Amino acid sequence: MVKYWRIRVAEQEVHGYAQELAATNQKLEQINQELERANHLKDYFMIRAAHELRTPLTTILGEVQLALRRLDKAKSTEKESLLWRRHFDKIEARTRVLQALVEDLIEFSSLHTGEKILQFGPCDFSKICGEVVENQRTYSGRQIELQLPPDPIIIQADGKRLTQVVINLVSNALHYSLEDTVISIGAHVEDASVLFQVHNEGPALSLEQQSHLFDPFYRTPYAETFFREGWGLGLTVSKEIVERHGGQIWVKSIEGEGTTFFVQIPLQVEQNIQAFSHQPARKMA
């Protein structure tokens, strides 16, 4: 009887623990649902705010450009024209900066929520690199070295989005390095993937900074001190694009040797990755 009684007590205890565990799991599930909804609300707010800002910015920019054209045709003194043009040029420049920030926010939100659908097809990665480097050389006047294999690098990808990644990485290298230093860029095929790298001789990044570089809205102390503009979204957007191609992006930075960003993307994207990249975004409840 004693043995039987102990077994019954143990069974009751186990049953009680099972009920407690089930209740705890139910609470955790409810909390997870609430957190997911809060996350969706945050994403929804960001993209709505960005879209609401885009319209007035476009209007302001259009009005400034119209005023500048009329100013060129107006019969006013040269001194007055120069004075007004200086004001309008400042307004246009600042509006373009703000417009670029809003576009970055929209791009990030669309990729993060899955609303941005990637268009996969054959594209020449060598050509993408060549065009971006040529444009950046013209725009910055900087020395940029580009090393590519003699044959085209054809990959299955969204060419427009990969161009965006290359622009982001090259622009970063130019932005955070001294003007008299050289930017080194290269791409080659390795193990059925394209390996792309961008090197600059700017200040080294600590391991702590490297661990946060691809986080949304993260900016290094150096960037915050010397470069006021920017959301800190360029690398985050690049990471989203690369990963949706089934690839990887990482950084290596050593004191005295500069900083190098690496991107590795498979030449042929797997069907399941293409399917994921074409999934519509989940709607909020």
Describe the SSE topology:
Blueprint: H1 2-73, H2 78-113, E1 121-124, H3 125-140, E2 144-147, E3 154-157, H4 159-175, E4 183-190, E5 193-200, H5 207-212, H6 221-226, H7 234-243, E6 248-254, E7 258-266, H8 271-277
Parallel strand pairs: 2-4
Antiparallel strand pairs: 1-3, 4-5, 5-7, 6-7
Helix pairs in contact: 1-2, 2-7, 3-4, 4-7
3D architecture notes:
By secondary structure, the chain is an alpha+beta fold. It folds into two domains: 1-116, Helix Hairpins, CATH 1.10.287; 121-273, Heat Shock Protein 90. Helix content is 60%, strand content 15%. It is built from eight helices and seven strands; from the N terminus they run ααβαββαββαααββα. The protein has helices spanning 2-73, 78-113, 125-140, 159-175, 207-212, 221-226, 234-243, 271-277; strands spanning 121-124, 144-147, 154-157, 183-190, 193-200, 248-254, 258-266. The strands form two sheets. A five-stranded mixed sheet has the order 2-4-5-7-6. Strand 4 (183-190) and strand 5 form a beta hairpin. Helix 1 runs antiparallel to helix 2, helix 2 (78-113) runs parallel beside helix 7 (234-243) and helix 4 runs antiparallel to helix 7 (234-243). It is extended. The termini are far apart.
